């Protein structure tokens, strides 16, 4: 697999990220995370969600990203135990050594070149009945999703509706079971592996 960054998925600066997700725990609770779950934070970036997941959950937390500098930032921000993995997201089955309850990906799926292929890789590491949680920007123009007074997020043509995400994920054998609103600009599409 190529070790290239996914297009249009650059990590924003910390102030911007904090303004967009001031309470990441609230978003994670809305998505349905429970303390007993194990999770992979796929394309974890600087660990904005990873640190909170590690505090919330009793199960193992894996954090995977291809960028070593972002992983270093993520490690610095989390005092809880996390299994850190520097890798291309598409190499997930080779890099995670046990099945997990949830694979979580935020603000990245729109830039994945082979989305169904990534969903198949996710399915290989999920337990039966496990969940793939995809947090995405709603379809809108960047000017309609300002953060700190500036247009932000991927270009409109890259944004995906929940139905468009389902068309890419469901061929991998994962079923869309619900969509959760994550104001102001996001939703979470939750897919389940058959039990």
What key phrases describe this protein's structure?
28% helix, 195 residues, 7 helices, globular, seven-stranded mixed beta sheet, Rossmann fold, two-stranded antiparallel ribbon
Describe the structure.
The chain has a single domain, classed as Vaccinia Virus protein VP39 (Rossmann fold, 3-Layer(aba) Sandwich), CATH 3.40.50.150. It contains seven helices and nine strands. It has helices at residues 14-20, 24-31, 50-56, 68-77, 92-95, 115-125, 162-169, and strands spanning 39-42, 61-65, 83-86, 100-106, 126-137, 146-147, 150-151, 175-182, 186-192. Strands 3-2-1-4-5-9-8 form a seven-stranded mixed sheet, sandwiched between helices. A two-stranded antiparallel sheet has the order 6-7. Strand 2, helix 4 (68-77) and strand 3 form a beta-alpha-beta unit.
CATH architecture descriptor text: 3-Layer(aba) Sandwich
Beta-strand portion reads 25-35%
Q: How many structural domains?
A: 1
Q: Give Rg in angstroms.
A: 15 Å
The number of helices is 7
CATH overall fold name:
Rossmann fold
| Helical percentage | 25-40%
What does the main sheet amount to?
A: 7 strands, mixed
